[in-house]
């Protein structure tokens, strides 16, 4: 037998890996670093301070945008996770049907279609609906977010369903459980970690969306990311850094929880 | 024990797939299984035994024919409406529930009152000797313990019939022997009809009241272990259960004439045509090559401890095997190449269909 191929023994492997990590993380580290700057710029260091966090925290516009982001993300996650769970059940818990691949593609469409196309499409449709119905609320943003969150919720739920032993559901039916009881008492409890993981991914995806939100929102419906985008037009202040760092922290917390939930516990 | 018929399969056909590509997993199967019986479906993999079990459980619906439970047609009832429970090959224990919750599951689904569920769960835990494990998760149990939980869970709702789908196949030999005895004990204590699926002939012979030998989607023979071993109906049954020697010749009145010219007494044989008989290796007697015995030459001798297998060739080259009990010295008194005379124990020669 020839010596086993090991990629980590190739010359330059370590150098390339280190450079790649630097390229990924230097911008983020810089952003976090200057959020603690005492000065007014994001270029020169004037000493450590938490003042920009205080400024952001006390800014009514930031508060409103953050709350709006959370409200939209909450409802979009709820809708997307429910739809994704049903879609995952439909695509794993019945005999394969003609056009199943087309259904997969349809469900995952938001991952493949350029976001700007979806944004323009939604803008046009919602503009028409707004004229017809007169409704101007957050519902449009919630629906739009729910739509592009579905594939993010769907993938972990489907993975969990496919990994589940089908004989468990057969056993429940054998032990006098009706189809609904089987779902309620066996499938759902075993699926729960997948659903929570899917919901977390959907929540994060909704929270940081810019493109679709920017197109669909009405006046005065800024979310945190679109508010930040608006601020940047008037020059970068460390306040934006502080908000970004807070969002980053939240994302890291949620993603860590996601990782802990989905990893195999054996 | 052999009382009324509990499960009756009538002309059951199960086809998978459609049109020309369809496979008949069961091909016109009819069988009656009696109340309180330990009934085994025995056959090689792909013979349809598990399909028949799944039809009785309700996991599949028959393509044709009916399945009766106590005279009522249950062919199209979903599994949750059949008073029949299954022990799965993989056990299929609910990983998110404790041992006690697993056992209580069926009773709860039947809507039994809480006190009854508790009492029966405790009784089942005692029956399978797992009282100490009640609050454990099933993943913390050994294979043998999981097996017993699966049994307790399936027996708890007191089904009319318990279906067992190769339940011992995942256990090691020693544990398997223990569970065979355990299963037999549970069946006698509960009096429930057991339908047991296996491909292991020894398991079938030692545990069953009656056995159905299956092959190619059909039941080849139904009978007690002795009936099937001593009077196999056809070539498949004779060769699947134990070892056997086949001899083919021309039927004469009360005898079979081999191609070698030798004559074997077969009581009741009527003249005409080519006929196959079988003789178990342990029914062969070896003696001096004299008149009335079939002349054969010893090819090889294989020592197995309790007995010695003697491979013989008849004068036309037909190979047969004799199983001789080893004497105290261990030496069967035979040598390879030696000429011997073969006779058969009275009644040992059985005519079989092809």
Average the pLDDT over all residues of chain B and give the rounded result: 89
Helical segment tally of chain B? 8
- Name the quaternary structure: heterodimer
What is the 3D shape of chain B?
Answer: elongated
* Beta fraction of chain B: 25-35%
Number of strands of chain A: 0
CATH superfamily of chain A: MetI-like
Q: Helical amount among residues of chain B, as a percent range? A: 10-25%
**Overall 3D form of chain A:** globular
How far the N terminus sits from the C terminus of chain B, by CA atoms, comes to 34 Å
Number of domains of chain A: 1
Overall residue-averaged pLDDT value of chain A: 87
Contiguous runs where pLDDT drops below 50 for at least 5 residues of chain B: none
The CATH topology of chain A is MetI-like fold
Which sheet architecture does the biggest sheet of chain A show?
Answer: none
Low-confidence sequence ranges of chain A? none
Q: Specify Rg of chain A, calculated over alpha carbons.
A: 23 Å
| Fraction of residues in H or I helices of chain A | over 70%
| Termini gap of chain A | 33 Å
Radius of gyration of chain B: 25 Å
Q: Would you give an account of this structure?
A:
With 266 residues, chain A is mostly helical. Chain A has a single domain (60-262), classed as MetI-like (MetI-like fold), CATH 1.10.3720. Chain A is 74% helix and 0% strand. Chain A has helices at 13-35, 51-58, 60-92, 100-107, 109-112, 115-133, 139-162, 166-174, 179-207, 211-216, 224-232, 238-262. The relative contact order of chain A is 0.14. The mean pLDDT of chain A is 87. Chain B is built from 8 helices and 20 strands. In chain B, α5 (173-190) links the parallel β7 (161-165) and β8 (193-198). In chain B, α2 (99-109) crosses α3 (114-127), α2 runs parallel beside α4 and α3 (114-127) crosses α4 (143-155). The A-B interface holds A 165, 167-168, 170-178, 181, 185-186, 189-190 and B 57-59, 78-81, 84-86, 88, 90, 92-96, 105-106, 109-110, 153-154, 157.
């Amino acid at each position: 037998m020839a010596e086993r191929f090991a990629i980590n023994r190739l010359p330059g492997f370590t150098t390339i890996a280190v450079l790649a990590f630097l390229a990924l993380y230097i911008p983020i580290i810089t952003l976090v670093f200057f959020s603690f700057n005492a000065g007014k710029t994001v270029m020169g260091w004037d000493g450590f301070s938490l003042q920009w966090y205080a400024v952001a925290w006390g800014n009514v516009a930031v508060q409103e945008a953050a709350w709006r982001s959370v409200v939209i993300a909450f409802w979009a996650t709820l809708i997307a996770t429910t739809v994704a769970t049903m879609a995952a059940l439909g695509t794993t818990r019945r005999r394969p049907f003609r056009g199943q691949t087309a259904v997969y593609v349809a469900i995952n469409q938001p991952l493949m279609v350029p976001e700007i196309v979806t944004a323009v499409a939604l803008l046009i449709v919602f503009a028409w609906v707004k004229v017809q119905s007169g409704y101007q609320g957050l519902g449009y943003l919630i629906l739009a977010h729910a739509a592009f969150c579905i594939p993010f919720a769907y993938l972990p739920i489907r993975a969990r369903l496919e990994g589940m032993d089908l004989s468990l559901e057969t056993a429940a039916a054998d032990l006098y459980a009706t189809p609904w009881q089987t779902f309620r008492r066996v499938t759902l409890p075993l699926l729960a970690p997948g659903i929570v993981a899917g919901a977390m991914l959907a929540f994060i995806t909704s929270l940081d969306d810019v493109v679709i939100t920017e197109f669909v929102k009405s006046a005065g419906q800024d979310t945190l990311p679109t508010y930040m985008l608006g601020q940047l037009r008037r020059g970068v202040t460390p306040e934006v850094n502080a908000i970004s760092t807070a969002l980053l922290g939240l994302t890291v917390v949620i993603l860590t929880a996601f990782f802990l939930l989905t990893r195999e516990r054996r | 024990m052999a009382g009324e018929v509990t499960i009756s399969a009538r002309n059951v056909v199960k086809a998978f797939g459609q049109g020309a590509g369809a496979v008949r997993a069961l091909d016109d199967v009819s069988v009656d299984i009696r109340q309180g019986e330990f009934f085994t479906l025995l056959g090689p993999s792909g013979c349809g035994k598990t399909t028949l079990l799944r039809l009785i459980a309700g996991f599949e619906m028959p393509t044709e024919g009916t399945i009766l439970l106590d005279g009522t047609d249950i062919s199209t009832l979903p599994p949750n409406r059949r008073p029949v429970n299954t022990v799965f090959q993989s056990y299929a224990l609910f990983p998110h529930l404790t041992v006690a919750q697993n056992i209580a599951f069926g009773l709860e689904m039947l809507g039994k009152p809480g006190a009854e569920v508790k009492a029966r769960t405790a009784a089942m835990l005692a029956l399978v000797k797992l009282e100490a494990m009640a609050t454990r998760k099933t993943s913390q149990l050994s294979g043998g313990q999981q097996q017993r939980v699966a049994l307790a869970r399936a027996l708890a709702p007191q089904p009319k019939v318990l279906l067992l789908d190769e339940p011992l196949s995942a256990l090691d030999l020693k544990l398997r022997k223990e569970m065979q005895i355990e299963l037999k004990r549970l069946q006698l204590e509960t009096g429930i009809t057991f339908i047991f699926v296996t491909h292991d002939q020894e398991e079938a012979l030692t545990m069953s009241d009656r056995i159905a030998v299956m092959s190619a989607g059909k039941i080849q023979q139904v009978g007690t272990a002795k009936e099937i071993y001593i009077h196999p109906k056809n070539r498949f049954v004779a060769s699947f259960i134990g070892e056997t020697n086949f001899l083919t010749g021309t039927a004469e009145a009360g005898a079979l004439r081999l191609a070698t010219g030798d004559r074997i007494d077969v009581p009741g044989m009527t003249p005409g045509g080519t006929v196959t008989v079988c003789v178990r290796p342990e029914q062969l007697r070896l003696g001096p090559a004299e008149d009335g015995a079939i002349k054969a030459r010893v090819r090889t001798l294989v020592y197995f401890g309790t007995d010695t297998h003697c491979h013989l060739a008849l004068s036309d080259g037909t190979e047969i095997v004799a199983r001789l009990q080893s004497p105290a010295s261990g030496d069967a008194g035979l040598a390879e190449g030696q000429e011997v005379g073969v006779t058969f124990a009275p009644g040992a020669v059985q005519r079989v269909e092809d």
